[in-house]
Amino acid sequence: MSQPPFLDLRATHNSHRWFLPVTPEITVGPEGKAFLFGGVGMAAAVRAMEATCGRPVIWATAQYLSYARVGAIVDYDVREATVGNAISQVRVTAHIGDQEILTVNAALGAREGVTDQWLKAPDVPPPDQCPPVKHWRGRADSVHGRFETRLAYGRYPTGQLEGGRSEDARLVTWVRSRDGLLASPELLAVLADFVPQATSNALGYHAGGNSLDNTIRYGRIQPTDWVMCDIRIDAIVSGLIHGSIHLFSPDGVLMATASQSLILRVHPVPAP
Fold this sequence. Notes:
Layout: E1 10-11, E2 17-21, E3 27-28, E4 35-36, H1 38-53, E5 57-64, E6 73-83, E7 87-96, E8 99-109, E9 132-133, E10 147-153, E11 170-177, H2 185-191, H3 199-203, E12 207-211, E13 213-218, E14 227-237, E15 240-248, E16 254-266
Helix pairs in contact: 1-2
């Protein structure tokens, strides 16, 4: 049985065009200034490409160009640049009228062949042994409000941090959908944009980032509710963050890996 989608992407009479109404539950940002979460923008492109091409996404990379505010309608135009026997190369342009919001390039398809995995999941306690945490903005009607998060390793930015700069800049969380959704290409694309959550842990003070890009590469997706998010801030250069995230199933299967760059934003410490 198929599960309901995470977002309300809608078809049009044109099989290569889709549209997404921007509603509060797919946004981030402060009250009154909320905007479409970058991972949702990528997830919508992934679903549009798979539905248009009839092939699974192998990898996708997004360049974030502008913001989409609550109430906007974002159009997604899918262009199949090349279609091979097994692999398609595809481009998606998401726009509001003439304003381009994001561009996604991707490869879709599947082949028979060797399947193996070398990257191992970190050894952390299972979700039921980890404390729950909430996103610092605390908006229930946002993307972050739609997920339950448990801290397995590192410091999660819920208030004042102690200990200063992290030695390994690593944050590990368990995350699952409050809507009961299982891991899918769409859901993992949303989680792949959680890299900014590790910024506070790395620096030792309350900070995050605005995404410039995101690249996701899919592995073997398992029908699991809990997803382990193993996040690292690799470097910060002149206020620009470079980070990565590995998304594992509870039994250690690598379901996706992603990396992105962000503009560093320092936030005020939220009130207790």
